[in-house]
What does this fold into?
Amino acid sequence: MNLGIIAVSLAVILIAGNTMVFAAKPWDLVISAKFEQAQIEPGQSPVIIGTITNQREEPIYGAKVEIRFTDNSVTTKTDEDGNFRYEFPPQDDQGTF
It folds into this structure.
């Protein structure tokens, strides 16, 4: 897995799940996401963390977050505070985000 491709994946985070209950449109949501560490060493695991809220800054609970990169995708869900976290497997290459 190329770490540069993972960084690009932040631009294609998609959500589904409980957001449908609120009839939310993608533009009704505020999504912030970043890598937990700016740089990783070989053998470390990159971690993406983020938050999903509505326009009133209320957390979106239980939203399915799909993170896509190349031909792969992974999913996680938001907690009661609208936070999500996904830890990728340890990487063989050093990377900067």
Remarks:
- The chain has one helix and eight strands.
- The first strand starts at residue 14 and ends at 17.
- The helical segments are 3-9.
- The radius of gyration is 14 Å.
